[in-house]
Amino acid sequence: MTTINDIAKRANVSRTTVSRALNNSGYVSEEARKRIMKIVEETGYMPNQSAKSLRTKRSGVIGVILPRLSTETSTRVVNGINEVLAKEGFQILLTDTELDKKKEIEYIRLLKSRHVDGIILLATNVNDELIQTIRDVDLPFLAIGQDLPEVTSLVYDDYHASADLTNMLIHKGHHKIAFIGVSRDDPSVGIMREQAFRDVMEREGGVIKDHWMGTGDFSIDSGYEEMKKILRASGKNRPRAVYAVTDRMAIGAMEYLKEQGYRIPEDMAVVGIGASSLSQYVSPSLTTIDYFNKKAGQQAAELLLAKLKNEKVEEKFELTYRLILRDSV
Amino acid sequence: MTTINDIAKRANVSRTTVSRALNNSGYVSEEARKRIMKIVEETGYMPNQSAKSLRTKRSGVIGVILPRLSTETSTRVVNGINEVLAKEGFQILLTDTELDKKKEIEYIRLLKSRHVDGIILLATNVNDELIQTIRDVDLPFLAIGQDLPEVTSLVYDDYHASADLTNMLIHKGHHKIAFIGVSRDDPSVGIMREQAFRDVMEREGGVIKDHWMGTGDFSIDSGYEEMKKILRASGKNRPRAVYAVTDRMAIGAMEYLKEQGYRIPEDMAVVGIGASSLSQYVSPSLTTIDYFNKKAGQQAAELLLAKLKNEKVEEKFELTYRLILRDSV
DNA sequence: CATTGGCATGTAATCGATTACACATTTCAT
DNA sequence: ATGAAATGTGTAATCGATTACATGCCAATG
């Protein structure tokens, strides 16, 4: 492996000059610069990033913490992040918490020790230890998906998105709507979306029944199972629509409905949230809400870059969404 | 930021002893060890990885190079890789070439300069400069998806998978099969799959016509467009089945067929490759081939770990696959 | 009792970069 | 002509860890 010293020797200068030439800092004669660059070309020399990072305290690496590596949402966000960061010469150090809150905290520390320049967290929950850890590591930090106090957060407007979706159902004539949510550990998905649903239903005179309210775990299977439970518990007085807080659960619900011979949307309307690629190609195509995840990733990366340049950035950002009306309603 | 020196001072030992305690190397008295560990706990000290890596030449980071961050195949593979590596305390440094061959090479060098311990490349093409670069960086290296000479490669058995799929179509009574492939830049997908198709068709008396052979670009849209072209060019004597080399293109083709009122599979059978989650939920569900991408990722990671431990590993590995028969045939 | 070897710890070199500071030379304004 | 400013280069310290080598102690061995 060639080092800066090798280059210096071959170019007959000190390594100081090589460093200056490479980083465009200080004065270097045109002559020396050319000589150095030529040798750099020839040898394919690349500065050792560990050494550089040790000295400068910057690594050109951004840590990204995901709840799950294999969901479309995560992938899209990472894609957006990467697009922006790669352009600026940053790399992504990826970690996957597998939805484990302990790991979330552990990884924040780990990334710090790995000298990342900043961290983007796709947050799924909010708790004091997490906030404390983020404060401790004292790095440019960005959260996506949950509103973390005193942390720059990009949040989806879950409340209004959910309210719009519910409203739409009601205005299409559905008053009896089943709901498939998730655990309240996840404030955005588990609480906000449900709250908006309940608020709108109440305001607009919809019918809410306890046994029409299911709780899944984000998976397609859980959507299927919850739908089954709801219909079995309902008997004759069944809901005429079902609102699942994620596309995957909505698609699970659709599967069960189709199996049981219900026609969608005539017998039962179905809606989800997320605009997954699945939602577009299932039959009938699923009405859903697009959260523009990729754009969220891009914006997060841009904000992080601004922070790295010591620009002041606001603390809260609300992301936009779009209702996509399709054939399932 | 606390360093090893801070710990040493507070524990009244030299940093050598702290290092030994932390790495379980050499002798450390039980007493000293306890004192050190206690302070480490209290301060939440984590060794600076840049310094460590500079000295030891190992970073605990594995570079992963993807052709595209946002495909299901990539995601599954990365997921498998991460599962295995995380367990061993490795992190993933992610790069996305956006299908650019230049970047592929650039990133290999970059990862080297970042001191990664090894590289896993999801390869999409094979060329001399690539091989040369891999040889140059001289790192534990693993390729997935293409057979790179003199590089440990995990390859999908594209030829036999494609042959099986074609055979299946023929034995279901389809002799007139359209084919939607991709550019020959990609040996595995662009050449092997087509070659197997042609070989089987010839052997089994299938009908191949030039205007039944399309070339897409992996996207759903391109599947749609190619299907349109093929049917328009065919007139009355149209194919009775279409084999697209990826699920996404198959789904695009299905979209067009459905739009035009063809019944699947009665009027036209459709098959793809990849076992995407889409394939399961489109209507009718798509017959496809599962390449077990996640397992491929796991195996790649395991092999890389073996290499890191200086174990000898073979150069070529053939991955298994599974034909999934669904309703589109 | 002298010697050997295990245990515990410390000193200082080292990894490969950046950078404060010093020094020499050239340029330029007054 | 002269001092100040600009230009070009080098010396050596530094970042935070690991590790070869040295040293001292103590118990066991013959």
Automatic annotation (TrEMBL), chains A, B:
Keywords: DNA-binding, Transcription, Transcription regulation. InterPro entries: HTH_LacI, LacI/GalR-like_sensor, Lambda_DNA-bd_dom_sf, Peripla_BP_I. This is Transcriptional regulator, LacI family. The lineage of its organism: Bacteria, Bacillati, Bacillota, Bacilli, Bacillales. It comes from Halobacillus alkaliphilus. It holds the Pfam family Peripla_BP_3. Residues 2-56 form the HTH lacI-type domain. GO terms for molecular function: DNA-binding transcription factor activity; transcription cis-regulatory region binding.
